[in-house]
Design goal:
The protein has 7 helices and 17 strands. The two termini are about 40 Å apart. Bound molecules: flavin-adenine dinucleotide (FAD). InterPro entries: FAD/NAD-bd_sf, FAD/NAD-binding_dom, Ferredoxin-NADP_redctase_2.
């Protein structure tokens, strides 16, 4: 039996040479895994259960799934991958490295619990961490009235009192964007943004208020959602939503020194998809990137297989005759 014809599922996940290991079971990783398992590839998905949007109860802007709980999308996705013979391991990946043995180049994946897996290709779909401005009360309300993405969460708070909490350059542009969702909008400068005269004039001209007093605390209501902020001057502002720009930190430390597939390394065995490589990838974009990567991986594996089969095979009688003729 060739590698191609062996069963797709393996009980001993460490002994198996997987066609692909997908690291991360969010929208990007599950979509990669679904494409590859439907392509009848041997796929192991490794995930340790801390997706980026675990702080929110509902997903928005995901066609066909408007308002669905993020955990429900992951549950459905996992069931779909398992139905196509994909295998899951609950573990945290600590290291990835390429090894070349007599059998060609492989990727080795080590987990924090001391296990090692081997694959012909690895897709990293580990997402990112949002680093929020350091302000009391803010982190606890992340996803519960504090957000980054107006297109994800603006609509649910339309025409309600909202703020943009400045966090670096272009905070004024975030306020201009949010004006589409509410006329009751204030930019909390909070010493985090050098607001010039021209920017201030443009904001005011569009009806966006500017609050220059510092912010001491974000306040929660009884429902544990944002109810406002307390300013350094002692006043309280009633708000329903606060949008800010976190710093995006990709969860890819374990890739340091590893070649990633792209124009610089066109033959590398490691792909990166979703938020791990692109902080702008929302759920639908992550699903799309995952499906694209799944197709790319399948094609790369196929090219290896054609090369291996051709190298092993004797030239056919016709080929031998043609080459003999050419040599004469
Ligand atoms: C509060 C909030 C609300 C949002 N709302 C929306 C919305 O309404 N609509 C929308 O389209 N987008 C929304 N997003 C964005 C959405 O979360 C991302 O677009 C999406 O999660 C990206 O998918 P991903 O698969 O790249 O990463 P993730 O969904 O973060 O999945 C990554 C997976 O990798 C795993 N992982 C990480 N490191 C390791 C490791 N070392 N080993 C093993 N596993 C690992 C994690 O456990 C996780 O399951 C929101 C984000 C936030 C923070």
């Amino acid at each position: 039996m060739t590698h191609q014809d062996a069963p797709l599922r393996a009980a001993d996940t460490e002994a198996q040479l997987w066609d692909a290991v997908v690291i991360g079971a969010g929208p990007a990783g599950l979509s990669t895994a679904l494409t590859l398992t439907r392509g009848r590839r041997r796929v192991l998905v490794i995930d340790h259960g801390v997706p980026r949007n675990r702080f929110t109860d509902h997903m928005h802007g995901v066609l066909g799934h408007e308002g669905l709980a993020p955990g429900e999308l992951r549950r459905i996705g996992r069931a779909e991958v398992e139905a196509h013979e994909g295998v899951f391991e609950d573990a945290q990946v600590a290291a990835v490295d390429s090894v070349t043995d007599g059998d060609g180049t492989r990727v080795r994946i080590a987990t924090t619990d001391g296990r090692t897996f081997r694959a012909r290709a690895v897709v990293v779909a580990t997402g990112l961490r949002d680093e929020l401005p350091n302000l009391p009360g803010l982190r606890a309300l992340w996803g519960r009235g504090v957000y980054a993405c107006p297109f994800c969460d603006g609509y649910e708070h339309r025409d309600r009192p909202m703020a943009v909490l400045a966090n670096g350059d272009h905070s004024d542009m975030k306020a201009h964007l949010l004006r589409q969702w509410s006329a009751d909008l204030v930019l909390l400068v909070n010493g985090a943004f050098a607001l010039g005269e021209a920017e201030a004039r443009a904001l005011t001209a569009r009806g966006i208020r500017i609050e220059r007093s510092g912010v001491d605390e974000v306040l929660a209501g009884d429902d544990n959602r944002v109810r406002g902020v307390r300013l350094a001057n002692g006043t309280e502002l009633a708000l329903e939503a606060i949008f800010t720009n976190p710093a995006f930190v990709p969860l890819t430390d374990f890739l340091e020194g590893v070649e990633v597939r792209g124009t610089e390394h066109p033959d590398a065995r490691v792909w990166v998809v979703g938020n791990a490589g692109d902080p702008r990838a929302n759920v639908p974009v992550s699903i799309g990137q995952g499906a694209t990567a799944g197709g790319d991986v399948a094609f790369a594996l196929l090219m290896d297989e054609i090369a291996a089969a051709t190298a092993d095979s004797e030239p056919s009688v016709v080929e031998s005759a043609v080459s003999a003729e050419a040599a004469a």
